[in-house]
Amino acid sequence: MSEVTTAEVVVPRTNKPPITQKRHGWAVPFLLGVGVLIAMLASLCIGAYPMSFWKAARIVVHLAWPFPLPSNPPWSVKEITVVQIIRLPRVLLATLAGMGLGMAGTALQGMMRNPLVGPDIVGVTSGAAFGGVMAMMFNFNPAGIIGLAFAFGLGAMALTFGLAKLARSGTNGLALILAGVFIGAFFIALVGLIQFLVPDAKLPTMVYWLLGTFVGADEKKVFMIGIPTLVGGAVLMLLRWRINLLSLGDLDAKTLGVNVGVLRWGIIALVSLIVASQVAVSGIVGWVGLVVPHCARMLVGPDHRRLLPTAALLGGLFVLGLDDLTRSIVKAELPVGILTALIGTPIVCFLFWKTQGKGWGRE
Amino acid sequence: MSLRNPFRVVPPCEFMWFAPFLCIGLMVVGLLRPLPKFTVPEHYRAVVDAEGTKVPIEEPFRGTILISLDAGGYLEITKSPDTLTYAGGTVDRSWFGKEFMSRIYPQVLQRGSLWDPQMIRHGHGPYAELESILASDGGAYLGSSGDLVPLLRRVGLPALYTNTGKEKDENESEFVWASVVTSLIGHPDRGAAVIAHYQQAFTDIASDLNESTLPNRPRVLVMGAESHEKQNKTPNIRSLYIKSTANPYQLYILRAGATNASEGWTSEQPEAERILAMDPDFIFLMWWGQDPQEFMHDPRWRGLRAVRERRVYRLPGNPGGGGLMGLIFQPISVRWMAEIVHPDRLQPKTRQVMRDTYLREFGYRMSDKEIDEQLQMNVNQPQPDYGRFARNY
Amino acid sequence: MNNTVVEFDNLGHAYHPSRWIFQNYSTQVKRGSTFALLGPNGCGKTTLLKILLGALKPTAGSIKVEGRTAFVPQLFQVTFDYSVLDMVLMGRARQVGLFSQPTAQDEEAAMASLERFGMADFARHPFHELSGGERQLVIFARALVSAAEILILDEPTSALDLKNQIVVLDWIGRLSREAGLTVLFTTHHPNHALAISDHALLMLGENHYVSGEAREVLSEEHLRALYDVEIKRLLFEHQGEPRETLVPMLPSSNIARKNKS
Fold this sequence. Notes:
Distance between the termini of chain C: 65 Å
CATH class of chain A: Mainly Alpha
Distance between the termini of chain A: 36 Å
Strand content of chain A: under 5%
Number of helices of chain C: 9
Radius of gyration of chain A: 22 Å
Number of strands of chain C: 11
Largest interface: A-C, 50 and 53 residues
Oligomer: heterotrimer
CATH superfamily of chain A: ABC transporter involved in vitamin B12 uptake, BtuC
CATH architecture of chain A: Orthogonal Bundle
Shape of chain A: globular
Number of domains of chain A: 1
C-alpha cells in the first residue's frame, strides 16, 4: 500500500461522544461455555432416580473420554444405565437443539439484515415439519426423515425469499416477515392434512411430537440431530465473519469482494440443515431462534465473531433449562415447544418495547 | 487462504466455540459405548414368557414390577399381594382404588411403597417410567408391549412379556397372560386352576342354555352414550361409542346366546342414526355415560325397539371402575347377559355364581349390598325380568 | 503498464426493452486521475455506477475495469451497530480467506487506515453515532484497507455540511495525487467537479454526452445544456493562486431586489 503523508486533519467535532457500546471482551462466551457444560451435568441429576452431581460428572467424563471404562467403577450398573440410556440422550438432545436454533437464528438475522426474523418466522420450521410428518407417515428411516425435512425446509425458505423479492424493499423489513408468515401458514395447513390422513394409531404421537418435545430421546435421535448441528454449526462458525459482510447489504458486500449469491445460499442451506434436523427429532420448538440472538446481541454486541458462539451457547442453556423445568417441576411433561412459546413471546414483546425508542433494529 | 505464521499464537476466540462443540461431540459419541450389563444371578430359575424367551429370575424372588399393567388384573390371577413391588403412579393408584379388587386387598392400596408419588401414570412416555422402575428394587419386570421390555433386556434386567400381541383371540391372550404371571411367582398351578374354572363355567352356561336348541338369538348391542348437555359442555367427550366387530365382547355375546347387532359396522363413533338402523333387541350400556333411565328418556333413542320394550341395562361391574372382565369374572357377566336374554331358559343363578366365585378365588364373602352394587341393581331393577337378580328371589 | 483503468465502449443500458437510459457512451479513465460524472436526477448516474461496480450487466456495449474497485455509497444504513473498527476491518474481505477470521495483522492494517484519516480515536465507537462526515471518512478508510486501486464514490458531498464537504473533497484530491488511486465520483455540484477532477463526463441525455478534460467540459454552454440553468464561470485569485468557480444565476439578483425596496 502506498504511503500517504500524514497531515493534520481537523477533527470535525470538538467533543468526543462517549463510548456507548459495551464490550465484554471474550469473558462472556468463555463463561457461557463453561456454564453450558456445568448445566448439562446438573441436568443429569434431575429425575426420579437419585443421583449426585459428582457421580453424574464422573460417569459422563468416563463415557466421553475415548478410553476403556474402568473395570471396577465407583458407580452401580443402575446408575450408569440411568445416565447413559435415560438422561444423557435427553440432555444432549435439548442442548443440541438449543445450540442449533441459536446459531440458525443469528445467521438468518445477520444475513437478512433484519433482527426480527427467526427460523419459524421465515418458514423453515413449518416446511421441515411437513417433510418430517410426511416421512413418518410413509415410515422412512431416520436419514430419510431428515432428508425430507431438509428438502421441504429449504424449499419453504426459497419460496419465502422469492415471494419477498416481489416487494420493492426486498429482504429488508415487513415484506420478508409477511412472506414467511404466508408460506409458514401454508405448510402448517399441509401438516394438518397429513394429520387427518394418518391412521388413528399414529396420531397421538404425531400431535405430541408437533408440539415440540424431547421425550423419548435415545442415541439414534441424538445422532440425527448431533451430526448436522455440530458439523453444520462448525461450518457456520467458520463463516461467521462473512455474515458481518453480508449484513452490510448486497451492493456493499459485493464491492468488498464477497460472492454474495453463493455465500447467501450456502448459509441458507446450512441453516435449513440444522433446523431440519432439530424439527425431525423434536418437533416444532419455536421462538428460540428469535429471542436468543437478541439476548446474545445485548450481551456481546453485533459482531458475529463473538455473537455466533454466544448465541449458540445461550440457546443451548435456554432450551436445556426449559427442558429441565418440564422434567422436574411440571411432572406432566409439558411439551417444550409450549414453554418456549409461553416464555419467548413475552421476551420478544419486551425487547420490541425496549428498542422502540432507539429505532428499528438498533439494540 | 491467508498465509498464517504458524508460530503466532492463535487468539482465544477460535477455541471458544470449538471447545464446547468438541465436548458435546465427545459426549454424543460416548453414547455409543456398549451398555452396562447386569450380571446373571447365581441362584435363579428360568421362567418362560409369552414369546417363549427363557428369563432367569433370581431366587429368592424379590417381587414383581408392573410396567403399564393393571394391579387389579395381577392380583386377580396371582392372589398374592406380597409379591408386588411396584404398581404404578398416583393416577394408577386412584383407579385401583375404584376397583373391587382394592376392597379384597386393601393393603395394596394403602402401601405407599408400591406407588410412585412422582409419577402420574403408566405409559406417559417410556423413559419417564423407566427411572421409577429402576429406582424400585424388584426381582422381575412384567410388561405387555412397547419399548421398555426390550430396553430392560438390553441391560440384562429380567423382563417378561405377558402377551405377544399376536394371539388369535381374547381367550388365548388371557390364558397366556395367566400362565406367565403365575409361573413368575412360582405358582403355575394357580394359573392352571383359573383356566380350568373358566372353561368349566362356560361349559355350564352352554349346557344350561342348551345352545343347539335355541329358537332364536336376540340381537344385542353394547354401547355407551353421553347426554346432549354433557356433550355440549365438554365437547371432546365421547358421545357415542358402540362396540363393533373388532371388540372383545364378541365372544362374550355369542356365548350368552345372542348375536352382535353391530356386526358389519366398523366405526366406533357413529351417528345416532346408525344405532336406529341397527335396532337391537337389547341394549347394554357401558359404565360411563347415561344410565338406563336417562337413556330411555333421551329423545334420540325413542325409536328403538329396545327402548320401547325397556330392555336397556347397565353392564355389571363396579360403578366408576371397570366391568366384570378377565378370566375370573367374565363367566359371571356372560351368565348375567344370558339370563337377561333368555330368561325362560335359565334359572336365576347369577347371584349365587358371583358369591361362590369370590369365595372360592379370594376367600372373600360378598355381602348382599355388594352384590347389588355389582349388578347395578339401582339402575337396572325397574326393567323387565330384572327381579330374578334381586336378593330375595 | 496500461494507463487506462476503465474503458467503456458504446455502453448502453435499458431497464425496459425500448426505454434506454443511455446509449453509446464511450470514454476512458486514466490511472491516478480523478473523474467526475455529472447529470440531472434520473439520467442514469447510479445505473452507470452499478455497471462500473459489476453489479449490473449493461444491455449494450462493453466495459473494461482493470483493478480492484472499492465503493463509497451515498447513504450508510447499517442494521447492526458495529464499531468503527469493525466496519473498517470488513474492508479486508479480500485478504481474509473464506473460512478464516481476520488476524491481528488485519486489525493493525485497519487501525493504520483509521489513523491516516484521523479517526483512530473513534475506533471503538459505534458507527451510527458518528456524523455524516465522520462516517464518510470511515468508509474511505475501509476502501483503502481493501487495497483497491479504483475508488468509486456516489455523491460524496450531498449529505454533508460545508465543513465536512471541504474535508472530503480535500481527501479525494489527496488520494488520487498522493496515493495514486483512481477516483470516480458522481456529483450534483459542478463546482466540486471543477475544483478537484481531472476529467469529467456530462450525461446530457439518451445519446448525448460530453467527455474530456474537466476544464474544457465544464464550460458555461455545456452546463447550461445539462442543467437548463444559467451558470457563470468566474476567475479569481486566492492567496496568490488563480482559482475558478462556477456560479448558478438566479432569475433576478438579490442586490437588485434590495435596491428596489
